[in-house]
User: Which sequence fits this backbone?
């Protein structure tokens, strides 16, 4: 079916139940069915894939890369470079879900990020995203949006349920070390792990401090995923704790000073509740 204005759906309200909101806050993540329809995914996925091919800088053979490099092709902030990708990243439907799950009055863009796990791509180690973000509170959430159906063989995202409250491992970058140390600690905490596949149109949302990982892609097809990172619209920049946070400050929050609300041209408000 050819996508038309009537079949593409980025801005209508996706109704959340109170049970879903409560579960997200308790578990640190949620997977929601039928957030986007097939026509919407096909239309925007084609452009996102085109931009990944155009902007990807990785040219090393897979076997010569680090664990991080084997995990995925990573292309960030596509939206300023493509009007079509911007339409997708600025979806009010997705931004409102993030707002309602966190219970904020609105959300800003932190940045978008395509994560394409190549055929034969390696595992993604356990980690928390907010290790990389110099932000003043925990009201951050990533929408993880598969652009195709993801069976277990393609390496869908896995979540440690309820792990957003664990302090151990928050200071570890994505690496073999983070995989080994966090995996050991999570086993000691005996928290369950959600290792399920993703249906087409299913989208997950997870807190910045929820531990997650992904298995390898053992298929002959790329695992195509787009992510959008949201933050509380009133969140502030804090003193960076590591070099990665300094890099994020310079890259994603240009001109913002420590103690100020993160309100740069790269951090527009994507959804705000009416007063």
Assistant:
């Amino acid at each position: 079916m050819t996508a038309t204005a009537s079949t593409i759906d980025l801005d209508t309200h996706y109704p959340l139940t109170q049970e879903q909101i409560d579960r997200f806050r308790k578990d640190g993540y949620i997977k929601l069915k039928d957030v986007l329809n097939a026509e919407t995914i096909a239309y925007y996925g084609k452009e996102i894939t085109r931009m990944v091919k155009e902007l990807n800088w990785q040219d090393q053979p897979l076997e010569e890369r680090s664990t991080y490099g084997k995990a995925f092709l990573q292309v960030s902030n596509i939206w300023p470079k493509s009007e079509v990708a911007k339409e997708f990243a600025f979806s009010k439907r997705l931004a409102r879900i993030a707002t309602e799950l966190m219970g904020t009055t609105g959300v800003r863009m932190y940045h978008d990020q395509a994560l394409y796990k190549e055929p034969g791509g390696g595992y993604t180690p356990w980690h928390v995203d907010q290790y990389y973000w110099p932000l003043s509170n925990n009201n951050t959430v990533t929408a993880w949006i598969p652009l195709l159906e993801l069976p277990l063989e393609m390496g869908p995202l896995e979540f440690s349920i309820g792990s957003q409250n664990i302090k151990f491992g928050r200071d570890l970058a994505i690496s073999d070390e983070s995989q080994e140390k966090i995996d050991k600690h999570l086993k000691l905490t005996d928290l369950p792990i959600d290792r399920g596949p993703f249906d087409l149109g299913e989208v997950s949302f997870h807190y910045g401090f929820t531990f997650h990982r992904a298995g390898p892609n053992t298929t002959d097809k790329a695992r195509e995923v787009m992510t959008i990172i949201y933050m509380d619209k009133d969140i502030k920049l804090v003193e960076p704790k590591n070099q990665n946070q300094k890099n994020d400050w310079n890259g994603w929050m240009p001109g913002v000073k420590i103690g100020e609300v993160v309100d740069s041209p790269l951090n527009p408000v994507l959804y705000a509740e009416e007063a």
User: Anything to note?
Assistant: The first helix runs from residue 18 to 27.
